Structure formats: C-alpha cells, structure tokens
Amino acid sequence: MDIFVTGTDTDVGKTVITAGLAAVMQSLGYEISVYKPFQSGAIEGNKQLISPDLSFVKQIDNNIKTKYSYIMKAPTTPSVAAELEGIVIDKKKVLKDFGELKQTSDIVITEGAGGLMVPVNNEMLMCDIVKMLNLPVVIVARATLGTINHTLMTVKMAQSMGINVLGVIINRYPLNTKDEAIKTAPSLIRKFSGVKLFGIIPDISSISDGCGAEFLIDSIINNLNLEEVFNMKIPKLN
C-alpha cells in the first residue's frame, strides 16, 4: 500500500524514516519509489539543484527510484520558496508525476515537507495534496517535550479532513532516558490519539555523516510493525 509520510513539525526525521522504510521493503523484493513533491532547501551541485532528501534515500539504497516535482533553493515553505524563485506550483504536475511512479512501482512512499498545514501555493496546504493523492498518512513525531500536543493535533486535524491516519512513529528516542516527559509520551500518544503506535526508533545520529545505513535498516526492522505500516502481509524479516 502506498503511504504519505508527514511530520508533527520540521526536522523530526521524516527523511530518515522514509529512507529506512523504503530500503527495507526494497530488500524484500518490492519495487519501491520515494516521491518528494516539493523539495525546498535544495543544494547546488554539478550546475544543478540537488534534493538532499532524495540523495539521502539513494545513499541508504541506490536501487530505490526517486522523483521530485518541484525543487527550490530557499529553505522555507514550498509556497514561499516557489514565489521567491518564480516557480508556479501546479497540482496537475504532482498528480502526473505520482501517477507515473505508480505505474512502475509496487509501493510509492511520498514524503511531505514539514507538517500537514504547510502552504504549498496560494491555494493549497500539504494536507490538500494528501487528499488529492488519496493517500493514508504515517505521522513521524519527535521524542521531546511538546510532542504529545503536536502529535494529537496532527492526528485530529487530519481526521477532521477525512484523511486516513494509519499511525504514528516516534523517532530519535534517546535510549536510557530519565526524562519523564519522554518516557510517558508514547503511551499517552497511543491512548489519546486513537491510532496505532507503529514503534519507537532510537536516536540514530551516526547516519547523518553517511554511515550507519545498516543500523538504520536494522532499527526499522526491529522496532516497527511493518505489516501495520503498509497494511499488507510481507515476508518474514530476519
């Protein structure tokens, strides 16, 4: 099943989770594509703009197909970045690009920019893109003070719009923490959100410098219920 990965905020590790999910499913024999409709904060290289998020996915597994529709250099919301750079964002292009990936993929994992209420253009928010693509949502949350509020608001807002929230992944969880806010957050999110808590991914800082791809994949396998994430029976994982 295709999914849309969003976050409770920016910098919660959506790309790390997206890359890990894609790499594990690719290793199981599925044709996986990662779609990034809007990439702002792009970097310059080889006389062109490069998507840092999709480059990271390729770094974890180069066999995963990747695609973006719009790429902008300004590190801000897609709507502002596009306006600054004279780009007109057209939802028809997003539909077309997503459809092309669907034709050649078993599963398309679409990664948003920021959270669901991020403006895409003068008329649409990220949640409107989710509805247009008719995708269920996986929410990535950080394991810090405030995450309960941010996560519950994201879940309830999405549901109020008729978006199917599959569940929540808590990312960057500090091992052996003594912080009561962090320790109690997972159970409270599970209780009050009414959606599944797919799992808790420990803090994996080592992969940011190009190392630890194996550690990321192992963390996804060992800490997430992948059958629930993708709502499908998958081969037994080692």
What report would you give on this structure?
Helices cover 40% and strands 22% of the residues. The chain contains nine helices and nine strands. The chain has helices at 14-27, 52-60, 78-84, 91-103, 126-133, 147-160, 180-193, 213-223, 226-230, and strands spanning 3-7, 32-39, 43-45, 48-50, 65-71, 107-111, 137-142, 165-173, 196-202. The strands form two sheets. The chain has a seven-stranded parallel β-sheet, sandwiched between helices. The protein is globular. The mean pLDDT is 93.
Largest sheet: 7 strands, parallel
Describe the strand arrangement of the main beta sheet, using strand numbers.
Answer: 5-2-6-1-7-8-9
Structural class comes to alpha/beta
How many angstroms separate the termini? 22 Å
Question: What's the shape?
Answer: globular
Return residue spans where pLDDT drops below 50 for at least 5 consecutive residues: none
Our estimate of the beta-strand percent is 15-25%
Share of helical residues:
25-40%
Q: Tell me the total number of β-strands.
A: 9
- What do the pLDDT scores average to? 93
Q: Report the order of strands and helices.
A: EHEEEHEHHEHEHEHEHH
Put simply, the count of helices is: 9
Q: From the alpha carbons, calculate the radius of gyration and give it in angstroms.
A: 17 Å
Per-chain topology:
Layout: E1 3-7, H1 14-27, E2 32-39, E3 43-45, E4 48-50, H2 52-60, E5 65-71, H3 78-84, H4 91-103, E6 107-111, H5 126-133, E7 137-142, H6 147-160, E8 165-173, H7 180-193, E9 196-202, H8 213-223, H9 226-230
Parallel strand pairs: 1-6, 1-7, 2-5, 2-6, 7-8, 8-9
Antiparallel strand pairs: 3-4
Helix pairs in contact: 1-2, 1-8, 6-7
